[in-house]
Each structure stands twice: as C-alpha cells, then as structure tokens.
C-alpha cells in the first residue's frame, strides 16, 4: 500500500490551520516543503493491524465479530510506502495503487470513490502544525488518517482511527515511515 500526500496553500498563502511561522515551503513545525517525497514503512516500529482489529472486535458476539473483522481487514490493508507531493491548494492521499483522495486545503468536503469498499465517501482535510488530518466519512463509519511529521519530515507517523456505530470501540493503530534518501 502506498500513500500519496499533496499539501498546498490556499490563495492567501498559508495552509488552513497553519501558524504564523509557516515558511514559503511548508510549516516550520515539520510538514515538508514543496516537492515530492517517498516514505517506506518501518515494520519493527509499526503496529500489527490484524492484532488491533482483533482487539477492537473481541467483545462482539460470535455472529457479528467475523463480519466486522472481515470488513475492517478489507479496508485496512498494510501500507508499505508513502509518497508525498506538495502542490498549491490540494491535499491528496493515495494508498498503494489506489485512487488518490484529493481534498482542498481549505477544508471543504469532496466526494471520493473508495475502491476498497466500492462506495462513495465524503473526504476533507485539516492541516495544522506538524499534522495533516484526513477524514473519510462512509455510510457505516469514519476513518481519520493523521499524518504526523517528525524529525524535520524525515519520518512520518500514520495514526489511523476508524469509528462506527457498529463497533464496540474505535480501531486505532499507528505505522511509522522513514523518508527515502533518493527523494
């Protein structure tokens, strides 16, 4: 799975939610500047998604538990790479070879066809400090992908939170990626 993230600026020059110390290339807090970047999964420093799913559904009854587990496994495949590209006015996140979720930096909600679930979700993004928060709203729940940039954008943590009225508690897991030296 690959993540492509495009972060830009609205017409006013600063990303939505950015603080006054935003530079011409991105927030000083850690989001990288304009350009293209590739990040690779650090498996030893990342959560076990299947274990997190099993923990989330463990209290469900024996009839609904396998259905919930199957759905969560389907929409939460392990990403192996993150591609980051910064351009004006848009944040775009693509998992592996999937279609990118392209959202305006100003936070407006846009429709996105989720190929994994085969349905249309509503997507929006908020950029603040060192974090890009992308939210996808589906008919049966929400997913937030928080991309948190560390060490001057050398590392990015992807914190995923999936909530649904059908789950006994949110599914939460975190994956760590390291920027490739070739980008």
Distance between the termini: 18 Å
Q: Characterize the overall form.
A: globular
Structural class: mainly beta
* Helicity, as a percent range: 10-25%
Sketch the topology as an H/E string, one letter per element.
EEEEHHEEEEEEEEE
Integer average pLDDT: 81
Number of strands: 13
The CATH class assignment is Mainly Beta
Tell me which CATH architecture applies here.
Beta Barrel
Radius of gyration: 16 Å
Strand order of the largest sheet: 1-5-4-13-12-11-10-9-8
Any low-confidence stretches, pLDDT <50, length ≥5?
A: 1-28
Strand content: 35-45%
Summed up, the domain count is 1
Q: The biggest beta sheet, please?
A: 9 strands, mixed
User: Helical element count?
Assistant: 2
Report on the structure:
The chain has 183 residues and is mostly beta strands. 11% of the residues lie in helices and 44% in strands. It starts with a strand and ends with a strand. 28% of the residues are buried.
Layout of helices and strands, plus pairs?
Layout: E1 2-5, E2 22-23, E3 26-27, E4 35-41, H1 49-57, H2 64-75, E5 81-86, E6 90-93, E7 101-104, E8 110-114, E9 119-128, E10 131-138, E11 141-150, E12 155-163, E13 171-179
Parallel strand pairs: 1-5
Antiparallel strand pairs: 2-3, 4-5, 4-13, 6-7, 8-9, 9-10, 10-11, 11-12, 12-13
Helix pairs in contact: 1-2
């Amino acid at each position: 799975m690959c993540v492509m993230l495009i972060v830009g600026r609205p017409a006013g020059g600063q990303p939505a939610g950015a603080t006054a110390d935003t530079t011409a290339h991105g927030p000083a807090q850690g989001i990288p500047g304009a350009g293209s970047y590739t990040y690779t999964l650090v498996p030893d420093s990342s959560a076990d998604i299947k274990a997190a799913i099993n923990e989330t559904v463990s209290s469900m009854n024996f009839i609904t538990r396998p259905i919930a587990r199957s759905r969560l496994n389907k929409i939460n495949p392990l990403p192996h790479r993150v591609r980051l590209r910064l351009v004006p006015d848009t944040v775009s996140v693509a998992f592996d070879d999937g279609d990118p979720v392209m959202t305006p930096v100003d936070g407006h909600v846009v429709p996105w066809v989720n190929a994994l679930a085969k349905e249309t979700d509503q997507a929006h993004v908020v950029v603040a400090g060192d974090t890009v928060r992308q939210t996808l709203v589906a008919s049966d729940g929400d997913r937030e992908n928080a991309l948190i940039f560390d060490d001057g954008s050398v590392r990015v943590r992807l914190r995923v939170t999936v909530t649904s009225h059908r789950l006994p508690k949110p599914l939460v897991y975190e994956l760590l990626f390291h920027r490739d030296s070739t980008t």
